[in-house]
User: Which sequence fits this backbone?
């Protein structure tokens, strides 16, 4: 007798019901809300929602099985972020609609306060790092990627934009100022904004050495007390030091004049956890899609990108995003 093993048929209903089940719980909906612009580890989420770790792990597993969240390894830690809906696939439209509704939820005040506390801890760790490393800054940067490795790529994208002779530039987080001479040459006026007085002093010394007369230095936090606008905002290797990079992109977009260009140089996602200790990195690079998604959510239009592979195995992404010229409303 010829016994045939029945082939297992994947049932589409299973996928849809997993999605409905995952969305059918208030805590899971709030987790999705909290992940709208951020990614958190399981311990952070446990703290934010004041719940037990095993309960939170269970909820994350259900969300993950329904493909509502995706994971990303950062060294030894696993971070959860929202998965992007694929509306062309089964369940994709339901997924997109669920997120749209979730985004209208307001998180309870105590949850919001604990999210701010997590952001505060991340930001303090980053600021503390830069106040301690001034003397060995260059060597530290060169462990992964220094300006010489990505200067030409940033300039290639920069020079493809047609800025007027009166255009202004803002560099956020200039570090020791290595990129300022290139900006000073191309723009009528350049502002270099950093929240570390130690780093700003290094930039000041470089401006003096190079006689850069059209550069102003500004001690300020790019995310909280920057109130200027420029035609071009350059952010080289800074985003991975921000506590909440998606929110940061939204804030950086407000620093652009209508029609202005945001140039972001960043590491691509990597798994070299030692960079946290050695270079004060809060994030181990970024997925290309995440950057584009966050920029789009901030009202910017993704433009051209260049990628630079380094001999040490890291990959750099240089990204151009534009604020539409017609976007003249005040943000
Ligand atoms: C890794 S360094 C990059 C320096 C330089 N752009 C380069 O590529 O060599 C990051 C810089 O961002 C600054 N920074 C970090 N968080 C900031 C914030 N919230 N506002 C302004 N500057 C910040 C740090 O002080 C430091 O100078």
Assistant:
């Amino acid at each position: 007798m010829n016994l045939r093993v029945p082939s297992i048929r994947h049932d589409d209903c299973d996928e849809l019901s997993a999605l409905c089940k995952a969305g059918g719980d208030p805590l899971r909906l709030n987790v999705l809300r909290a992940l709208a612009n951020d990614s958190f580890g399981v311990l952070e989420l446990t703290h934010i929602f004041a719940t037990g770790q095993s309960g939170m792990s269970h909820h994350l597993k259900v969300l993950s099985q329904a493909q509502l969240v995706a994971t990303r390894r950062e060294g030894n830690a696993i971070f959860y972020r929202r998965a992007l809906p694929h509306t062309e696939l089964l369940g994709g439209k339901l997924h997109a609609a669920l997120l749209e509704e979730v985004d209208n939820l307001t998180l309870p005040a105590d949850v919001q306060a604990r999210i701010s506390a997590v952001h505060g801890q991340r930001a303090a760790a980053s600021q503390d790092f830069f106040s301690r490393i001034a003397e060995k800054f260059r060597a530290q940067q060169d462990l992964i990627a220094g300006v010489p490795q990505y200067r030409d790529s940033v300039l290639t994208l920069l020079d493809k934009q047609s800025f007027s002779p009166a255009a202004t530039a803002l560099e956020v987080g200039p570090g020791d100022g290595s990129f300022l001479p290139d900006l000073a040459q191309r723009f009528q006026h350049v502002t270099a904004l950093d929240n570390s007085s130690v780093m700003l002093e290094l930039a000041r010394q470089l401006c003096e050495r190079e006689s850069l007369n059209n550069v102003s230095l500004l001690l300020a936090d790019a995310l909280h007390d920057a109130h200027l606008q420029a035609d071009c905002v350059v952010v080289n290797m800074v985003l991975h030091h921000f506590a909440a990079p998606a929110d940061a992109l939204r804030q950086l977009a407000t620093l652009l004049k209508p029609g202005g260009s945001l140039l972001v140089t960043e590491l691509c996602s990597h798994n070299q956890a030692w960079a946290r200790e050695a270079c004060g990195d809060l994030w181990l690079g970024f997925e290309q899609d995440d950057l584009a998604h966050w920029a789009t959510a901030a009202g910017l239009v993704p433009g051209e990108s260049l990628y630079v592979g380094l001999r040490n195995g890291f990959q750099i992404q240089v990204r151009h995003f534009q604020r539409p010229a017609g976007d003249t409303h005040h943000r």
Q: What stands out?
A: Residues 185 and 224 are 29 Å apart (CA to CA). The chain has two domains: 12-107, 136-322. The chain has 13 helices and ten strands.
